[in-house]
Amino acid sequence: MWAYESVFYQIYPLGFCGAPFENDGKLEHRILKVNDWIPHIKGLGANAIYFSPLFESDTHGYNARDYRKVDCRLGTNEDFKEVCQKLHEAGIKVVLDGVFNHAGRGFWAFQDVLQNREHSQYLGWFHINLGGNSNYNDGLWYEGWEGNYDLVKLNLQNEEVVSYLLDSVKFWIDEFGIDGLRLDVAYCLNENFVRRLRSFCDSQKQDFFLVGEMLHGDYNRLMNDAMLHSATNYECYKGLFSSFNSMNMFEIVHSLMRQFGPENWTLYKGKHLLSFVDNHDVTRIASNLSNEKHLPLIYALMFGMPGIPCVYYGSEWGAKAHKNEGDPALRACFEEPQENDLTAWIAKLAEAKKGSDALNYGAFRSVVLTNRQCIFERRTDKERVLVAINAEDVPYTAHFDAGCGRAEDLISGAMHDFGGGSQLPPYSAFFWKCEV
User: Fold this and answer.
1) pLDDT (tens digit, 9 = 90+) per residue, 204-247?
2) Phi–psi pair at 21, nearest 5 degrees
3) Calpha distance 137→119 (Å, rounded)
4) What sign results for the dihedral spanned by CA atoms 38, 41, 46, 52?
5) Is 220 exposed, middle or buried (0-12, 13-18, 19+ CB in 10 A)?
6) If you ran DSSP here, which 8-state letter would residue 308 be given?
7) Residues 181, 95 contacting (CB under 8 angstroms)
8) Burial of 146 by CB count in 10 Å (0-12 exposed, 13-18 middle, 19+ buried)?
9) pLDDT tens digits for 75-128?
10) According to the 3-state scheme, what is the secondary structure of 144-159?
């Protein structure tokens, strides 16, 4: 599967393009801005883009009005088709947000229910009680996602709804040539629907990638051979920044051992979760770390651990925004990409990851672990890589049996000699490729 050997770049289109929050109905060809960023994205080492919602919606994209029309604030279907074509020409795969749990109040089928009530042919598309009322005083009650009545929950046990959604996916594949979907709030989706979706996508395009938004619980409930290929690794998202802020590497390594370690009981051995240090829903990592010198290190740890690394636009040069500033701050519009030491560092990490069998597919084993340092092994039959992190402001000498005398650092290309212990400079990270 191509995704397992990829580095993802996430764009939240409405914010990225500077579109107004409310759908003003005015056609603006903003999505073409992505074309100007392709050299930056490619230079960063990303070879797949995950686009947050870009179809016609009421406001933020997750409240869709029409699943087959690009939001007028972003442009036209032809505009996005051009963007996808240019991305594919640059060797970059395209993954869209599939918002299948709920639609917006402006969704055409729900508007028909509001107008025609019991006479609407779409009444069964939602969970409706005509004897109740909503926060919008509609004269009927309907289920909203987690009590949010601007997000109208779809009835995924209704065959017409399922057919509409699957036909929409087919339209996206045929029209735009997309390569996969990220399923919004996958943990809420009807499991039979997810099975249907997987089977349908497999029939439409080879190696079509499905990743689900999972926050907690056992990701295997939806991530298996009959459903999703991957899930968002929120457990390690928390463990990554918390380990650095508390100077306690035991936290992240404990999660990695629980998920991918050598024991038979580990949860996700051999699977490929989506790894991230931030996204459109959470505080940007440069605002989340208490020590800015840990910023390159947390990316090194994310690229070195098992999973598919995903970089959120703007964070690659250290853009800041805190969750308490609101979603618009997290989903900012940058006029042009920036290049600095961090972007150059991430580009090196990306090339190392994409070119390494061990970093793409290797098993996980902890080798050295202290509060402020960790060294772990990624290994396949073809390759062996040691990932080393020193989060402390002083040098550290690690004494362990590396199993080889010398190794190449995949990031810098320099050779490392393990004789007399491994010297880790302050605030440093290494990917040492050793003999198998």
Assistant:
1) 999 999 999 999 899 999 999 999 999 999 999 999 999 999 99
2) -65, -45
3) 19
4) negative
5) middle
6) E
7) yes
8) exposed
9) 999 999 999 999 999 999 999 999 999 999 999 999 999 999 999 999 999 999
10) EECCEEEEEEECCCCH
Rounded Cα gap, residues 388 and 356, in angstroms: 16
DSSP state of 239: H
Annotate 260-275 with b (16+ C-beta within 10 A) or e (fewer). Answer: bbeeeebebeebbbbb
DSSP code of 131?
A: T
Q: How far is CA 368 from the centre of its chain?
A: 29
Which tokens go with 52?
């947050």
3-state secondary structure of 85: helix
Return the pLDDT at 161: 98
CA dist list (Å): 263 to 259, 268, 383: 10, 11, 21
Q: Is the dihedral of CA 218, 222, 224, 228 positive or negative?
A: negative
Nearest to 310, CA basis, from 357, 351, 273: 273
Q: Residue 186 has what DSSP assignment?
A: G
* Residue type (1 letter), 43: G
Q: Give the whole-angstrom CA distance, residue 223 versus residue 252.
A: 22
Strand, coil or helix: 72: coil
Residue 368: how many other CB atoms lie within 10 Å: 19
Residue 378: both structure tokens together: 């990624």
Say what angle helices 191-204 and 159-176 make with each other, to 10 degrees. Answer: 30
Record the tokens describing residue 98, joined without a space.
């599939």
Query: b/e string for 36-52 if b means 16 or more Cβ within 10 A?
Result: ebbebbbebbbbbbbbb
Indicate the burial class of 230 (C-beta count within 10 angstroms; 0-12, 13-18, 19 or more).
Answer: buried
Task: Quote the radius of gyration of the chain (alpha carbons, Å).
Answer: 23
